[in-house]
Amino acid sequence: MKGAMNAVMTNGVLRLAAKPQPNLSPAALLGELNDVLKERLEELMNVTMVIGLVSVEAKRLTLANAAHHAHPLLVRKGEVQRLIAKGMLLGMMAGIRYREVEFLLQSGDVVAFMTDGIIEITDSSGQDYAGSGQLEQVIGGFTAEMPPREMVDVLIDDALAYGRRKAEQDDYMTVVVLRLK
User: Fold this and answer.
1) Is residue 108 within 8 Å of 144, Cβ to Cβ?
2) Could you give the number of structural domains in the chain?
């Protein structure tokens, strides 16, 4: 329950901090969010998050990461690449400066953002989905013609099927997919 309440609070603070503004910076947004959460989260509680800003005109993705280990995945012509940006957890200490990493995109690229509920689901032997290689195989099958909604459904369905022998799912699963035209 604490985790859910922290997620709701984080969502509200993020929405206020991300109001339309010129020159929005994912790193500055994480810094602002971090300082607010430091004051409001219970001790030893924290949040992970990755924020991406896409410039369609420049075909550029700018990422800032607050210790979210389910790194976004880029699919380009069937090849899968992890888009790695690193940073500290949100809410642990005030004044953290986050860094941004830029990735150049191409027409037809697909970028998948996901929660750790996808990558950490395990099969009956305890092997996690991301470590099995199946995640990259499924995402590598995404094509530029596939509707993003279908990509989301395929990924979630496959992850659930991978962990189907478990009595219950341990974590929520969220996937956001963007496709650059």
Assistant:
1) yes
2) 1
Check: CB of residue 63 under 8 Å from CB of residue 55.
no
Q: Which residue has the tokens 């037809």?
A: 108
Place 42 in a pLDDT band, splitting at 50, 70 and 90: confident
Q: What is the CATH number of the domain that holds 22?
A: 3.60.40.10
Tell me the residue range of the domain where 59 lies.
2-179
117-172 confidence digits (pLDDT tens): 899 999 888 899 999 999 999 999 998 789 999 999 999 999 999 987 554 566 77
> Would you say 90 and 33 are in contact if contact means Cβ atoms under 8 Å apart?
yes
pTM of the model: 0.88
